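testing teh design pipeline on a random one, pls ignore if ur not involved
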């Protein structure tokens, strides 16, 4: 089957490569000529483990191509996926900005000369599918098409695995014809017994927001419990394990830390609140989730300040990890973007390292001193802050680290290390949801 994918951002590129790997003929469209040129030359615009390999593999097989010409991509395509960005906070109101989605609809509408299923893969508010259908009909009254919703559930850093072995495929359709075509698109996964859930377009649109809001709730919940653990002497890792073994709760997203970030949770929780407000519905739990997440970042600033003796003024801090999570170069809504400027404003000097995020971080955090490795970052610093739990930070040479630091202060915002291990290494160790270790 020939598939066109509009947009070569994170969702569009991963999905396009994934569909090609399932055996379809896929052509990805983007107006950014420089990005398409890079893709044609084999250069990836984002870092995602395994993406470069799967793109090159399917390019060689002739199943995946890239173009800036929409007409060329739509010719002969049975399915068109709209996978453009939907940035948040349009006019600062928290609502998803649908400009790119509607522009894509207007661009493809005049080119619909035979029946196609137009599938919205971008994360969009409830009712967007109906608006896209209206725009297409107004632009091209003779267009024959069906609208569908197919939200993505891709975790950055694990996106290809999530695409090829998803826990479910959610489809929102109005009729059996569109459902049949989309079942054919996903047939290789259905043969592997991946659950295929069919519902209305509105239900599919809301499923994405509801899923992300629930996962964000688990993060904010455990961060509140972590604060209580520090005051009572409990260990949040033990509490999370005791909770997570209950199958009704589950272990995932119960890791205390500096708060959630990235391209989905912050944007989607705010957009969901805006949707609810427009419909006169109060989502008190989601409101609290957002508030707790913002408060958690402020709490991490206070934790770092406390570890430095009450003031960061004149201190040099080594920061390991800048992206919102490991295995991605994504800096969107990363806790570092809130925490580090606050420290710099109060007179701190930051020496930072990140395995993949420094190129993007330099645009957003120009006042940092960027280092080639974690040990260089720690040299001459008063303390080290582990901000993102990259694999290479999980087995640091602690003796070497202590020798490089001016003071043996380790602030672990991801709870990577064991308290006893840090005590034996001679560190003054701060973590999240556990009382500090003061070495003798």
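output:
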């Amino acid at each position: 089957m020939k598939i066109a994918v509009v947009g070569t951002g994170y969702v569009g590129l991963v999905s396009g490569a994934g569909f090609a790997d399932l055996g379809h003929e896929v052509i990805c469209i983007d107006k950014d000529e420089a990005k398409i040129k890079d893709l044609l030359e084999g250069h990836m615009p984002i870092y995602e483990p395994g993406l470069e390999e799967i793109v090159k593999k399917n390019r060689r097989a002739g199943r995946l191509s890239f173009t800036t010409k929409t007409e060329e991509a739509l010719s002969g395509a049975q399915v068109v996926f709209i996978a453009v960005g939907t940035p948040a906070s349009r006019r600062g109101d928290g609502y998803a900005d649908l400009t790119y989605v509607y522009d894509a609809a207007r661009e493809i509408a005049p080119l619909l000369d035979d029946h196609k299923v137009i599938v919205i893969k971008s994360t969009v508010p409830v009712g967007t599918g109906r608006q896209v259908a209206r725009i297409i009909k107004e632009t091209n009254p003779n267009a024959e098409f069906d609208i569908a919703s197919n939200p993505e559930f891709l975790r950055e850093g694990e996106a290809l695995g999530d695409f090829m072995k998803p826990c479910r495929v959610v489809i929102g359709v109005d009729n059996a014809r569109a459902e049949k075509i989309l079942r054919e698109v996903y047939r290789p996964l259905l043969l592997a017994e991946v659950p295929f859930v069919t519902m209305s377009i509105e239900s599919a649109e809301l499923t994405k927001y509801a899923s992300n809001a629930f996962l964000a709730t688990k993060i904010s919940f455990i961060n509140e419990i972590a604060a209580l653990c520090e005051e009572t002497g409990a260990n949040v890792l033990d509490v999370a394990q005791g909770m997570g073994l209950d199958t009704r709760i589950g272990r995932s997203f119960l890791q205390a830390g500096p708060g959630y970030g990235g391209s989905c949770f912050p944007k989607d929780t705010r957009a969901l609140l805006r949707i609810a407000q427009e419909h006169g519905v109060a989502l008190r739990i989601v409101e609290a989730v957002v508030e707790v997440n913002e408060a958690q970042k402020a709490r991490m600033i206070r934790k770092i300040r406390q570890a430095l003796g009450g003031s960061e003024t004149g201190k040099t801090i080594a920061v390991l990890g800048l992206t919102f999570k490991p295995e991605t170069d994504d800096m969107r809504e990363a806790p570092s973007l809130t925490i580090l400027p606050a420290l710099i404003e109060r007179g701190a000097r930051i020496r930072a390292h990140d395995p993949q995020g420094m190129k993007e971080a330099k645009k957003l955090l120009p006042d940092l001193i960027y280092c080639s490795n974690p040990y260089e970052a720690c040299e001459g610093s008063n303390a080290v802050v582990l901000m993102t739990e990259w694999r290479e930070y999980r087995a640091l040479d602690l003796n070497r680290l202590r020798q490089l630091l001016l003071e043996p202060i380790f602030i672990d915002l991801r709870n990577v290390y064991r308290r006893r291990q840090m005590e034996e290494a001679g560190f003054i160790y701060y973590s999240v949801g556990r009382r500090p270790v003061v070495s003798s």
